[in-house]
Amino acid sequence: MQRIGDAPAVRRTLVAAALLLAALFLLLPLVAIFAQAFAQGVGVFWSNVSDHYTLRAIGLTLFITALTIPVCLVFGVALAWLVTRFSFPGRRVLQTLIDIPFAVSPVVAGLVYLLLYGRNGWLGGWLDGHDIQLMFAWPGILMVTIFVTCPFVARELIPLMQAQGSREEEAAVTLGAPGWTIFRRVTLPNIRWALLYGVILTNARAVGEFGAVSVVSGAIRGQTNTLPLHLEQLYQDYNTVGAFASAALLALIALLTLAAKATLEWRAARQEAHP
Amino acid sequence: MSIRLQNIGKHFDAGRQRTQALEPVNLDIHDGELIGLLGPSGSGKTTLLRIIAGLESADPDSGARILFGDRDVTQVHVRDRRIGFVFQHYALFRHMTVFDNVAFGLTVLPRKQRPTTGEIRARVHRLLEMVQLEPLANRYPAQLSGGQQQRVSLARALALRPDVLLLDEPFGALDAKVRQDLRRWLRHLHDELGFTSIFVTHDQEEALELSDRVAVMSNGRIEQIDTPDAVYKAPANRFVFEFLGDVNHLEGEVRDGVLTCGEARLSASLPDGPEELLLRPHEVRLAPAPTPEARLPVTVTAISPVGAEVRVELAADWLGEPWLATVRHADYERLDLTRGQRLFVIPRRWHRFNAETTQRRQAMTA
Q: Rounded to whole angstroms, how far apart are CA atoms A153 and A79?
């Protein structure tokens, strides 16, 4: 029996088109990044990466990411728990609100934060009076990064926790387990892979976030420049090799994230087969 | 431990709609009794069970009280009620081995009450021996059959030696053979260990076979609570009668002691007016000729000779729905039943429930 696409010619054309597009749009740019970064030799690449301002940018990016992940983790777990284990008025609205950071352009998010917390902003004026500066400093960058990344963990957990239901937790409570024990010994082991997956996505986004951060950071070299902002500045300064060296770093982080994600998926699939 | 339920009511609010899941229910369960809550889905039986467990709370305004022996547990949290709960779909901890599942309740005890690791191991192995699953102690739930999983779940519920064992449709998801075995086994366990058990089921046979007393529920009410024999032989009302088995309906008009329905006639000393009589399949006798009291012509439409009795489906113009009759194999052969054959029904007895749900029955001369 012949199914659609079974003719050898059709199949070959489709496979070729898919491979060509993947190569043109996905693989080639990646290769180009590394090619450009190392265009003038490893020495030049290394001197660009170990440049003082680049190192500061890397440091700030890692610092922001390290703070973002635990916040998103706690927020995501709490939110998923709330939405899947309790029924209360406004539950559906809350579930929709989770998606706002995905729906809104990051630049808009940055502008809103600037409007609220900037020196002339609604809350910023009061904060300024108390000598607290959030915008154009790392707290502002942290705030928008959290805003942009906060749905990832919750998004991963909600469908899973909904599918698993609360029966195991109910069983645990009838056996006399206190709340924290139930979470630690029943809930957490059941969601661990989804949780890790959510963290990986959060990490990827936190490292690479550009739009929202560029609005609130002020891009002060060596102080409020994250790696993506630094990259853009280098490029504007016609320092192509420097820009691509930073880009290579970001791409490397992305590749590591992908590898981690693939490993996790593989392990989770194996877990499913042999728990 | 005896259980007393007083004014246990429950309603759910969904938007503006208020659903009464349970009308205030009263129920006394004796120490060591095995009670079946029987009813169709939506009758409130699971809600009642979950309220007894403490997984859900009764409406506070109705003055609800739950007593375990002399202990008022109305305000006591589930984890402190000392109950064992068995879920319909087992609810085993999927990431733990059979051993760890059964041991869970012991390992989460406060440090002072917690047995030593050795004691826990000994106790879990005794429990697994009791449910005949010791060789599978290191397996994961996903590697077990449904019946095995439910036995693990029972062992887990019994690990803390609860006074009260609550089972929510414990055998609902299992196939018939396994169900039969587990039923017998649960009865045995109950008698041996002497706890008080309440189980929920929608299976009449299961409830009648297993329980000391059956509470038949519908629409959030307990319609009748009595021994299996009594609910079957003396149903309190029409719902109980219809729910406990197959029923044949005979609707007609009574005039001068004769019920007429199309071409069908039946002598019955009843007041004049519309009437509905109910008959169980085994109360229907088939004969080649009518009697002076009963002339109810029917046609055989289907025959199922599997089992201890032959099930015969009957149809007629004067019948709204087909009737079901069970006849002995000897009678089946004597009558030489075939599909399409025309016969006469002779009721052995019939039942009648009037609006006040008082019930009368009448034995017919067969």
A: 9
- Are A84 and A160 in contact, with CB atoms under 8 Å apart? no
What is the Cα gyration radius of chain A? 23
Band of the pLDDT at A168, cuts 50, 70, 90? very high
Rounded to whole angstroms, the Cα distance separating B302 from A59 reads 83
Does the structure's ipTM exceed the value 0.85? Answer: no
Alpha helices in chain A (DSSP H): 8-22, 28-37, 41-49, 52-85, 91-97, 100-103, 106-117, 124-129, 138-149, 151-164, 167-174, 179-182, 188-208, 211-217, 227-236, 240-273
Among B53, B87, B95, beta carbon nearest to A275 = B95
pLDDT range class, residue A48, cuts 50, 70, 90: confident
Q: How far apart are CA B158 and CA B141, in angstroms?
A: 18
Instruction: Return the H-helix or E-strand segment holding B299.
Output: strand B297-304
Alpha-carbon distance values, A116 to A122, A136, A140, A210, B7 (Å): 5, 13, 11, 20, 54
Place of tokens 């005896």: B2
Task: Report the residue of A164, A174, A186, A187 to disrupt the B interface, i.e. the one with the largest count of B CBs within 10 Å.
Answer: A174
pTM for the model = 0.80
The pLDDT value recorded for residue B364 is: 43
Q: Do B108 and A177 touch (CB under 8 A)?
A: yes
Specify the pLDDT at position B360. Answer: 46
Q: What is the pLDDT of residue A186?
A: 94
**Sign of the CA dihedral running B237, B243, B249, B251:** positive
Residue B301 pLDDT exceeds 60: yes
Residues 173-202 of A with CB under 8 A from B: 173-178, 181, 185-186, 189-190
- B355 pLDDT more than 90: no
pLDDT value of residue A273:
61
Sign of torsion over alpha carbons A143, A145, A150, A151: positive
A46: left (phi over 0), alpha (psi -120 to 50) or beta: alpha
Q: How far apart are the first and last CA of chain B?
A: 48
